[in-house]
Recover the amino acids of this structure.
C-alpha cells in the first residue's frame, strides 16, 4: 500500500523541517508531495534541501501565490499512491494518526475519511471561541444542505481513495476547498467515515492564516455548489480492500487505536 501525502506550503520555514520529519517517520510507504505556493521566507530553499536528503519527497513550485486550494489541486493530480491524505505544513495536525485515518479505507468500508477534531478525547489546544462557533455554524449548514452528519467539515485531515479524489473536478483556489469538496463528495453519495484526531492549533502570532473573510467565502461556496453541482450516482457497490503492508493485522492498521 502506497500513501500520497499532499502538503501545500506557503511561508512555513519555522515548522517545515519538523512537520516533514514527522510525516516521513510514519511507518508506511509514503510519497510526500510538497506544493510550494510562492513562499518568500526561505521555505523553497528548505524544501530543496529536504528533497536532497529524502527521495520520498516530490516538490512542485507554483509560479506565484495562487492559494491553498490551487496547491491542493496540483498535488492531488500528481499523486500516485493508493490513498491520498491532505497535510498542512504547520504543526496543528499529527501525522502519527495517519493509521487511524486510513483504517476504514484499507478495510474497504469508506471512500473518504474525515479526521474530526470534535469526536476525539485526545489532546486539543484551547484557542479561539469565535473560530469554534464559525466552524460549528459552517458544519451545521453543510450538513443541512447535503444531508450528511459530519462533526467537522473544516478539518484539514481528509483521506481519500486516490481514484475518487482525482475523479472530482475542483475549482476553489483558496480556503473554499473544504466546503467544495464536502458538497461534491455528498453529491456523489460516496461512503464517508469520521475518526477522532488530536489538534494543536496555533495562534495568529504563530502563523495562523485563515481570516473571517475565509468563513464568508466558505458559506458562499456551500450555497453555490449545493445549487450548481449535479448529483452523481456512485459507481459500483463494493470496493476491495487494498493490500496491507508486511506485518499488518488484517482489518487493522499497525498502531491504530
Amino acid at each position: 500500500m502506497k500513501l500520497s501525502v499532499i502538503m501545500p506550503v506557503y511561508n512555513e520555514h519555522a515548522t517545515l523541517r519538523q512537520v516533514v520529519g514527522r510525516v516521513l517517520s510514519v511507518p508506511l510507504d509514503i510519497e510526500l508531495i510538497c506544493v510550494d505556493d510562492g513562499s518568500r521566507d526561505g521555505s523553497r530553499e528548505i524544501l530543496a534541501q529536504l528533497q536532497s536528503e529524502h527521495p520520498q519527497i516530490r516538490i512542485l513550485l507554483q509560479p506565484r501565490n495562487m492559494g491553498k486550494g490551487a496547491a491542493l489541486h496540483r498535488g492531488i493530480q500528481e499523486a500516485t499512491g493508493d490513498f491520498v491524505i491532505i497535510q498542512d505544513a504547520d504543526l496543528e495536525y499529527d501525522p502519527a494518526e495517519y493509521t487511524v485515518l486510513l483504517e476504514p479505507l484499507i478495510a474497504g468500508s469508506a471512500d473518504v475519511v474525515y479526521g474530526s477534531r470534535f469526536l476525539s478525547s485526545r489532546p486539543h489546544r484551547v484557542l479561539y471561541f469565535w473560530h469554534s462557533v464559525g466552524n460549528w455554524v459552517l458544519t451545521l449548514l453543510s450538513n443541512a444542505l447535503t444531508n450528511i452528519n459530519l462533526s467537522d467539515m473544516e478539518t484539514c485531515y481528509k483521506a481519500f481513495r486516490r481514484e475518487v479524489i482525482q475523479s472530482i473536478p475542483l475549482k476553489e483556489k483558496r480556503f473554499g476547498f473544504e466546503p467544495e469538496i464536502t458538497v461534491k463528495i455528498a453529491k456523489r453519495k460516496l461512503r464517508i467515515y469520521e475518526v477522532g484526531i488530536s489538534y494543536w492549533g496555533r495562534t495568529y502570532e504563530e502563523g495562523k492564516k485563515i481570516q473571517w473573510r475565509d468563513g464568508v467565502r466558505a458559506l458562499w461556496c456551500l450555497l453555490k455548489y449545493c445549487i450548481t453541482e449535479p448529483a452523481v450516482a456512485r459507481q459500483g457497490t463494493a470496493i476491495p480492500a487494498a493490500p496491507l503492508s508486511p506485518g499488518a493485522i488484517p482489518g487493522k492498521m499497525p498502531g491504530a487505536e
